[in-house]
Amino acid sequence: MKARWPLASALALSGVALFSGSVSASTPVPGVTTTILAKSTFGKLNIKAHADPSNLWSARLKTHGASDIYVVDNKFAPGSDTGWHSHPGPSLVFVVAGTVTNYTSDEPGCPPHVYTAGTNFIDTGGRDSHLLRNEGTVLAETIAVQLLPNGATRRIDEPVPASCSR
């Protein structure tokens, strides 16, 4: 039987405690509901993965300390947004319903990047900040997998970047 949520299943098998509970961001965001689906702390990571020898695909993930890994479900009412914020590590973001528009401070003028259900994007985290907005007329939803330094604040509120008009 194929798992409906293979990532959640894999995390559960690796010892991640799955739980469901709403959490508020640093500043409450009207119209956005955030639920932590899973969180676990992993020790120092040194993962080197390869496909079979005929395939050139490989992956490398190495940390110099423990990491907190989150699986986060965000639901956006039409017209709502996250406010400008950053994360201290990368996020893999899956759009599972509706459409979200991502504005990032690391691009001059913060141009919009539109993502529809079934697409994904990476937020590299670190110094750039971003804002996700539901500019559509129906509920939008994202699932994010975040890799953060152990004990770090998951979301950091940021001012509107000077180079952005949003």
UniProtKB/TrEMBL annotation:
Keywords: Signal. Coiled coil: none annotated. Residues 1-25 form the signal peptide. It comes from the Bacteria. Gene3D superfamilies: Jelly Rolls. This is Cupin domain-containing protein.
